[in-house]
What we know:
Layout: E1 12-16, H1 21-31, E2 35-40, H2 61-64, E3 71-74, H3 80-91, E4 95-98, H4 104-107, H5 112-118, E5 123-128, H6 143-149, H7 176-196, E6 201-205, H8 206-213, H9 215-227, E7 259-264, E8 275-280, H10 284-293, H11 308-313, H12 315-326, H13 331-340, E9 345-347, H14 351-355, H15 358-362, E10 366-370, E11 377-381, H16 404-410, H17 415-424
Parallel strand pairs: 1-2, 1-4, 2-3, 4-5, 5-6
Antiparallel strand pairs: 7-8, 8-9, 10-11
Amino acid sequence: MVNEYAPLKGIKVVDWTQVQSGPSCTQILAWLGADVIKIEKPGTGDPTRNQLLDIEDSWGIYYLQLNANKKSLTLNAKTESGHKVLTELLKNADIFIENIKPGAVEKLGFGWEQVHALNPRLIMGTIKGFNKGSRFENVKAYEPVAQCSGGAASTTGWNEGEFNVPTQSAAALGDSNSGMHLCIGILAALMQREHTGEGTYVYQSMRNATLNLCRIKLRDQIMLDNLGALPHYSVYGKPGYKWGKAIPRTENTEGGQVIGWCYKAKGWETDPNAYVYIVIQDPKKSWESVCTAIEKPELIDDPRFDTWQHRQLHKEEMYAEIEDYTKNFDKYELTDKLGKAGVPVGPVIDWYEIENDPELNSDGTIVTINQGGNRGEYKTIGLPFTMANYTPDYKRAPDLGENNVEILEGLGFSDDDIKGMVEEGTISEARGPKNAKPEVQLNF
Length: 444
């Protein structure tokens, strides 16, 4: 482990964020070596500390997975002393990130113009639901709001049956994705400051982060505008389907000119994730590889499947032919067999398997952190990329207000000042988790 090369060593971050979008950004900064001070509401802290609880006297795993390696400062910035504390923090910081409700930082006197005047080298980052100037600018946004307004939900799901409804992805396209996008902007701003000597303002909307991951849907919309139909969509060739002005839902297709689909594997009757995803590429040679691998060489020159266009028109029949083979082998056997034949294939891996995967647990993808207390060790997804000369030193998440005294003394406040802040409600005493053992109903 080489930590003397921490990329953000010496960088100070004031983290006024909560729940997921902002903390996912500052979590990466902390793992890259930045000194991250998380500002939390006195007495209660980040809402996720006490949400979705699973262990007695333990902070929620939701909180722990997004706030490791940070310091916690409880602070009410509305009081005179709280305003002074935040002012002093920002004077000495490199980065200030916030995702509190629209208009709140400006009302408290910590908007971009105010903090830039206070510290011209400070970089400020903001996550909000929508762009500045948007007709939705003052609307509070949550994950589903971002996915619906960002074009993800309208294209996810099925086009027929009772589940033909806009559907959000389980991936955090609005939350963690927004944090990752903001992190890119913050790192770019740090490099820019090396040239200009000044900080800048990085504004990230959850809607734009979602739109960026959905950019190929704009490609499809433009194609639909020009062609009136999309050959690479599931509904293409279905009798009676009427194309509208907007692109339909993508169902389980790959989304490009290749044909991808999820096929049943051995055990699918009892295991909802006993499936593999197989991609059939355009060239005839690729189709030949598939047919040979599934032991059906007679399909190579079948006129229903001999070209990409024909395979698109006869998808359902092709799926049936392939699945007739895949149902005989488990998903890992299929991945091995088809992978060796040069066919793009992958098993559908559920989260129990991921949690216990020996490779992911040994290569740094899943890391184990010792939180202590009743929680003990817990797992989380670590830094999502690797660096040849640096590995994060993964540390526990802080208790609520755990670093109050350390931070305030570092800013020059005396013991009497700190006691006074507690008395007036500017800060709260540091405390650990205190909750009853959660109960769930297993049988209904």
